[in-house]
Design goal:
By secondary structure, the protein is of the alpha/beta class. The chain is built from 8 helices and 6 strands, in the order E-H-E-H-E-H-E-H-E-H-E-H-H-H. The chain has a 6-stranded parallel β-sheet with strand order 3-2-1-4-5-6, with helices on both faces. Helix 1 packs across helix 6, helix 4 (98-105) crosses helix 7 and helix 7 (149-167) runs parallel beside helix 8 (169-176). The radius of gyration is 15 Å and the shape is globular. The chain starts with 10 loop residues before the first strand and ends with a helix.
């Protein structure tokens, strides 16, 4: 259901949980370092009830109108964010990283921690995005992609191809069989 769109914008997307483990305040700091007022940063998370961590993030965002927090989005509203995003950030490791596969299906290069875990199995480092070991490195790789449109386009196309060739239902069925 996730497919590339020609309507890409300067959106950085992060889909995760509103929990301190994800260190989303570090992603906001990276975002502010980019110093480009055209970018938007979108955080998407499923959440039950209130979240002190989300409230903390909202306070830290200082009401920056370029930072958006989305709670409990249905797929019909999440899909357009993937469609329009240029970069996908994942700030921790995960066991498989389905959200990274979703991003790549939408032709979005991903930058993630988790070289030894799920993201390391999905992202082809340097081709479909980058695997990083620090937030400073995440900033540097984001800058590199966003400053070089040809690099972004090449990674975007490689991310989509990776999603189809390695992560889609047909490759899964063939491996299973």
């Amino acid at each position: 259901i996730f497919k590339p769109s020609s309507r890409k914008k300067d959106i950085i997307l992060s889909v995760c949980k509103y929990e301190p483990l994800y260190k989303l305040e570090e992603l906001m700091r990276i975002f502010w370092r980019l110093k480009n007022n055209d970018y938007e940063l979108h955080f998407v998370a499923q959440i039950d009830g209130s979240s002190p961590y989300l409230e903390k993030l909202i306070r830290l965002s200082k009401k920056d109108k370029r930072i958006h927090f989305h709670k409990n989005l249905p797929v019909s509203e999440l899909k357009p964010l993937y469609d329009r995003a240029k970069i996908f950030w994942h700030s921790t490791w995960s066991y498989y990283g389905l959200i990274i596969a979703e991003a790549q299906s939408s032709a979005v290069p991903s930058i993630s921690f988790g070289r030894e875990h799920g993201p390391g199995e999905i992202i082809v480092d340097g081709k479909t995005g980058y695997l990083v070991d620090s937030f400073d490195e995440m900033y540097q790789k984001t800058q590199k992609i966003l400053k070089d449109n040809r690099l972004w386009r090449r990674m975007s196309q490689a991310a989509r191809k990776n999603a189809i060739d390695r992560l889609g239902i047909n490759p899964f069925i063939n491996c299973f069989l």
